[in-house]
Prior knowledge:
Elements: E1 3-5, E2 21-22, H1 24-39, E3 45-52, H2 56-73, E4 78-80, H3 84-97, E5 101-103, H4 104-114, E6 118-127, E7 130-139, E8 145-153, H5 158-167, H6 169-174, H7 179-189, H8 192-201, H9 208-220, H10 228-240, H11 244-256, H12 264-276, H13 280-292, H14 300-311, H15 316-328, H16 336-348, H17 352-364, H18 367-379, H19 383-395, H20 399-411, H21 415-427, H22 431-443, H23 447-459, H24 467-478, H25 483-495, H26 512-524, H27 528-539, H28 551-563, H29 567-576
Helix pairs in contact: 1-2, 2-5, 3-4, 5-7, 7-8, 9-10, 10-11, 11-12, 12-13, 13-14, 14-15, 15-16, 15-17, 16-17, 16-18, 18-19, 19-20, 20-21, 21-22, 22-23, 23-24, 24-25, 25-26, 26-27, 27-28, 28-29
Amino acid sequence: MKKFTIGMVSILMAIPLFAKTYSLQEAISNGCAEICKKIDGHINTVVIVDVQSDSESLSDYIYSELNYNFVNNLKKTAVAERNEFTLSLIKKEFEYQNSGEVSDLTIQSVGNSLGAECVVLGKIEDSSSGWKFSLKAVQVETKKILSVWSGTISKNDKDVKFIVSKDNVADSLNNGVSYVDLANKAYEYGDYKLAFEYFLKADEITDSYSQGNLGWLYQTGEGGFQNYAKAFDWYLKSAKQGDAFSQNKIGFFYFNGYGVNKSYKDAKIWYEKAAEQGNIYAQTSLGYLYQYGYGVTKDFKKAKDLYNQSAVQGDPVAQYNLGVLYQNGFGVPVDYVEAIEWYEKAAAQGYELAVTALEVCYALQTPEDRIKYCQKLAQKGDVDAMFELAGLYDLLDNIPLSIEWCKKAAEKGHLQAQLECGDYYQHEENYTEAFVYYKKAADMGNAYAQSWMGYFYRYGIGTKTNFTKAIEYFEKAANQGDSYSSRNLAENYEYGFGISVEDAPYGEAINFDKAFYWYKKAAEQGDVMSQVWLGSLYSITYHFFGIKKNIPEAKKWYEKASAQGDSYAKERLTELK
């Protein structure tokens, strides 16, 4: 009987000297992606049958992850869930053969029982070079292998090591690994209930790291049982051994009265111990005590210094608290610039109080305050701040400084600044400079600037007349919906400006077909002049454009122009009634 092995089909190939190794998650993700690419849309339903492994926990984990990845990656192919019948077939096959193979009969039985056209089989096994992981997809009806993937998972992959350890607790304990070691592995992996279970089985827990971990499990209840008093006891054991994390927690418990009587003075003692070791959360909490005078004499300077220590290390609470000090002038002069700077850092990390405080600060700022803030950012190269400075100085009627900052922003690629500079110099009739800035914006794809470039090239403003360039820019803008450019293109084709003879069907630099196309496009885009032009064109027989008289069509375009206030269109509508 023909058999299909669960493992990968052996393929002869050159093996690189330094073969790539994957993490468990990378291997699962890459394997799924490869198989999904081959079967999605070509197979109606697929089922993941089994992942063979010496570790039942590892097999179950990979199966679960594969199922999740297939469901999320396959868009056109459904994923069926295996059932007890599936598992019993596989189990019988393995027990009978003990060969790591699945027969074609089993593949058919599994596929048919679930209505799947394709089954996916996997295998992971330990080797000297790492964990060998393979996947293959087999078509049920033909037994054809549709896709295969294999890779090596790092020997030291923490996910694999932890999952396997759950199957080999007895062996681990016999080899000198303690329940405390197993608990910490589970804790680091994020399996908190298992970590809690192992901690409870330990004869003694003497190291500060483990004591702190168990304290956290009791505090949060992540292990399945919350008890502040027990959390406090374990944190205290750890804190007395000098663990900064636990010292900060003891301070927190004393401050809030969790598992112990509330005591601000004791909170201060433990926060200080942790803060001296550089614990940023303790530094922030100690600063809070000094800001509000909990268990200490209120001292804004000490609060500020402590907040600074943790804020520069990225603690959003400290950043927010510094903003409060500067906004309200607590121990420092009122400085909205500094307040906003710290609020923005905290808000960028999702700290909601800072987001609200920012809105208040923005409302309280004067233009001068904002200028001071933007100057600090602009000096660091912030192009948005440069452009904002241009607007602020314009608000204060300081045009020279407004233009100076606008140009700085424009030179650094700020699109709106380029447009503003172009408009300013055009208004000042410095067309050479206007051309420079419009070109920068046009080359970034801005339709408004492209339209002006077409205009400048068509009429030789700020540059030499160049109809070819004019058409090039007008087309770019017109294709983005700019009605002015569409009409200018129409005029170029109607009168032959910059049109090559090869592009003109009448042997001269005129193309009425394209002229009509662009006039209609401009009219559809809302250009009043083009709407009037079409109304006029349809109200007579204009042989050059090959358009026959069509009064209803003429009225339609006159009505559009009239609706925009065009007086000529209104007169023509009256005449046509």
